[in-house]
Amino acid sequence: MGADFADTSSRSSDDDDDDPEAALNPGGDEDGNVAPLFRLNRLPPGRQDANSALLPGEGSVMSVYMMMHRIRRLVMAAVDDTYTLDELRAPHMDLQVVRPLVDRLYNPEDPAIVYCLVANRVQFLRPRSSEAAHQGMNEARATLCELLATRILRRFYEDHPGRSGLLLLANILVSGFDPCDTAPESVRSRRPQWAIQERGGHERKLTAFELAIISESKLLIKSPACQLVVDAVYKGVVVYTPLSFVDFLPDHYKYHPVSLYEPRRAAILNHRRLIVPQLRNGIELMHFALLLILYMLTVAHYGFGSDMAGVRVYETIFNIFTAGWVLEQFAAVVEHGWEVHVQNLWSFLDVTFVAIYGAYGLVRAVELLFTDDDYYALPVLCTAAPVLLTRVAFTVMPDNIVFIALHAMMRDFTRLTFIAIWCFAGFVVGLLFLARTSGEGSLNAGVTWATITKWLLWIWFGLDGTGIERAADFHLILGPTLIITFAFLGNTLFLTILVAILTNTFSKIISNEAAEIQFRRAVLTFQGVKSDAIFSYPPPFNIAALMILLPLKFLVGPLAFHHINVAAIRAVNAPILLLIGLWERRRVWARRSKSSRLRSWRYFPGLSPHGDIQVVFASEPPPEVVDALEKMDALHEVNAANRMLTVQSPKDVRGAASAVRRRRTSNSSSIRRFEA
């Protein structure tokens, strides 16, 4: 895919550097988006004969399908052993493996290379029983794919500076690519044939950014080039239409490519600003705050013994709003998939609250249909208080390393707890059968699985020893044996393993703190960009939109439905859209005023206490100074010293060190002669 960007802005280059939200050219659509000017020279997708998979012709680049298999062959040939990231980045491996592959694969006309590399990383990390013996080698190959993607993305970043480079990087990371591009018909026929919503030719496409999140490519995500795009997308400087699998309320009449946003050219009520991650996070925080307030009012009135009529009013408002909030969360899971959703810090808290709210709704429905009591459903709802209040902390401080570590440790803790419960159930069943077969008559009549469970729990937490005292009642020998075995396994082995696993997870996260924070911010940014129109309606208006607009979609044409949907979104969100439009326009004006003052300050270094330093580095040194510096330190010798680091044998190391000492002595003599 070739990209020829043209900057036809009428303003000066200084204004361009100080205003990252400025447009590349005076044109733009009605939403204020200015798309890059580039041409696509990829192989025609209709060519699926045997010759279409050969080398691309002049003016075109290799198809995604061909590039994916080419990368796979090269990586498998380059790595045939287990390597860590540090070993792959060692000087000799970097010179012999990484750099040649980067030089071979890098093509400034093809932004799909990074996507193909990350796609291969996902495939190498996929566990397969047939390749269990080569799992370590596949992990090394996946690491190499991530390292190559990072290096190639950095080359794109270095070769394309400015806003045109930002657009190119955004196209590389958030533009969708079809993995079966120009694939043979035999491959296309094996694709899953589930129902796909029509998206104007953008069906079944994935982005490199999404694959990087799924494969946890933290080295790629924390790179400066990727962080530049993440920051631009998060702030709404770069806008695009995201690709999703299924939408609850699809409105794909318009497709907006990756482009820059110019607030001055956009409508004052720009409904597409509702999917900007920075603004979206603020809106979702207000929704959650309102949910928490309604929850507190409902539970507090019930707990203080108020009349049930007042409780039902608050409960009704809470249920209506919460139903819309749950719909929004469910749509978020469907939007980008469960694998991406669970990377969010507070995803497990949302799932827990939805489960509690579902249990409350089920009990409440039974009360309304079959009984007249109000004593069972609301106590179930009270158990959600720890979840909601904990989520406040996670939402307010999403970049805190402690909460990031808690999110990672919760997965290990849940997995190990499930294993413990499974083993715990085995002891309960064993003791229950032992009581039925060999216990005394009184024990046979009174013991139940609930009693045995209580005794074992008390032993596990060290609260009571009744189970140990009554162990002989199950069986004189086997009863105490099972109880003591359970006590040893639960209090010694399980707790030791749990502490060791959680400590190891926490130490890994702390050792790579910056990458973890940047990865979570990237996940938050990617999840914030939504394509489903249901997210443009705040709860509980999203329920009304789903009930009214979705049937209407089948009665009117795409253009009419688009106009109706946009009008409804602007009407519902008019105050918020007005504030967003005025704030963004004021922010651009304030930035330009500030940049003008900064430019005038730069032109007067004498007003700064560090002005002398700025004068020294403001221009290149004269030729005679450069010649004198070259006589002191020849740059080609520095490059030779860098190449020397790649030698491996001790003999070569000693010989190279001697050569460096000889050159150092010669340089010292030259410096003394120059000074004389």
List the topology elements.
Elements: H1 13-18, E1 33-34, H2 64-78, H3 85-88, H4 91-105, H5 113-125, H6 135-159, H7 162-174, E2 176-177, H8 185-188, E3 206-207, H9 208-214, H10 218-221, H11 224-235, E4 238-239, E5 259-261, H12 277-303, H13 308-336, H14 338-341, H15 347-370, H16 377-382, H17 385-396, H18 401-438, H19 441-446, H20 449-461, H21 466-469, H22 471-474, H23 478-511, H24 513-528, H25 541-553, H26 558-572, H27 574-602, H28 611-617, H29 623-632, H30 635-644, H31 650-675
Antiparallel strand pairs: 1-5, 2-3, 4-5
Characterise this structure.
The chain is mostly helical. 66% of the residues lie in helices and 2% in strands. It contains 31 helices and five strands. It has helices at 13-18, 64-78, 85-88, 91-105, 113-125, 135-159, 162-174, 185-188, 208-214, 218-221, 224-235, 277-303, 308-336, 338-341, 347-370, 377-382, 385-396, 401-438, 441-446, 449-461, 466-469, 471-474, 478-511, 513-528, 541-553, 558-572, 574-602, 611-617, 623-632, 635-644, 650-675; strands at 33-34, 176-177, 206-207, 238-239, 259-261. The protein has a three-stranded antiparallel β-sheet. A two-stranded antiparallel sheet has the order 2-3. Helix 5 runs parallel beside helix 9. The longest helix is centred in the middle third of the chain and has 38 residues, at 401-438. It is globular.
